[in-house]
Amino acid sequence: MNEYLAGIFPGRVIKVAVNAGLGCPNRGRCIYCNNLAFNPSYAAQDDSGSITAQLEKGIQFNSRKGDCYGYLAYFQSYTNTFGPTDKLIQLYEEALQYPGVKGLVIATRPDCIKPDLADWFEHRFGKKAPQGHPHLLLEIGIESTIDRTLEFINRHHTYQCAVDCINDLSERGIDMGAHLILGLPGETEQDFMTHAERVSALPIKTLKLHQLQVVKGTKLAQMYQEDPSQIKLFTAQEYAEIVARFIKTARKDIFYDRFVSETPSSMLIAPAWGIKPQAFNQLLPK
């Protein structure tokens, strides 16, 4: 991811997560999802609840990382294009007005970008934007490229929906990213390589890979507790070998934002690897 950003900005930029409180049209239905598992403490909406207040806290929190060129406001929790378009634009513009914010990263679902919002993205950040416009990276949760898996995990969209969304917004001049989960129930290692081939055919710039995790408060957790044998979970070394093969199969110019997901130990049921992302990267075969 740093390499991707280095090609856009003249200096180091830091992502600062914000919680816009937008909810999700599929909230509580995806069998693996509990958003509390990846919401930073400074982005938990407090009484102020404002984007500005969260950016102030987040930038202060990240100040320990040293000087930087600027920040990207990362709309991370839930579905960040879900809601009335005028409200969404107000939230995005509030973030862009904060001193030092150079652009946005917006995580969303492929079935939640309305045509009028796509038009606004194109005029504010894309082909029709004025010179010197702020940057936008849209991260689309694909999760799997196999429709039977998407149906099983209750995503309520097809892979073709993700293809159409990513192609349309890329044609509008928007940088696109994607998320995939490796290890979803019923999928094999060959399926993971199929994911690599299929997403490589899409005009994505960045990719996040996540290992399947069983998180408290999810349907997956209930399934795991009833019969652990129906959920295949990888050791860190097994997963590292799968990721290495995925990278070799995928398009070579994709920038990887991350290979693993971190969940607070208080919410994680399994697998408990006990290692940080940087330590995991050392496990990747050379």
Explain what you see.
With 286 residues, the protein is α/β, with parallel strands linked by helices. It has one domain: TIM Barrel. 34% of the residues lie in helices and 18% in strands. The strands form 2 sheets. A 7-stranded parallel sheet has the order 1-2-3-4-5-6-8. The protein has a two-stranded antiparallel ribbon with strand order 7-9. Helix 7 (189-200) packs parallel to helix 9. The chain starts with a helix and ends in a 5-residue tail after the last helix. The model has no long low-confidence stretch (mean pLDDT 92).
Name a few traits of the molecule.
286 residues, 10 helices, 9 strands, single chain, TIM Barrel, two-stranded antiparallel ribbon, 7-stranded parallel β-sheet, alpha/beta
Topology of helices and strands:
Elements: H1 2-6, E1 13-18, H2 51-62, E2 70-75, H3 85-96, E3 101-108, H4 115-124, E4 135-143, H5 147-152, H6 159-171, E5 175-182, H7 189-200, E6 206-211, E7 214-215, H8 219-226, H9 236-249, E8 255-258, E9 268-270, H10 277-281
Parallel strand pairs: 1-2, 2-3, 3-4, 4-5, 5-6, 6-8
Antiparallel strand pairs: 7-9
What is the architecture at the second tier of CATH?
Answer: Alpha-Beta Barrel
Biggest sheet features:
7 strands, parallel
Number of E-type strands: 9
Net shape: globular
Which percent bin holds the helix content? 25-40%
CATH class: Alpha Beta
- Detail the poorly predicted runs: none
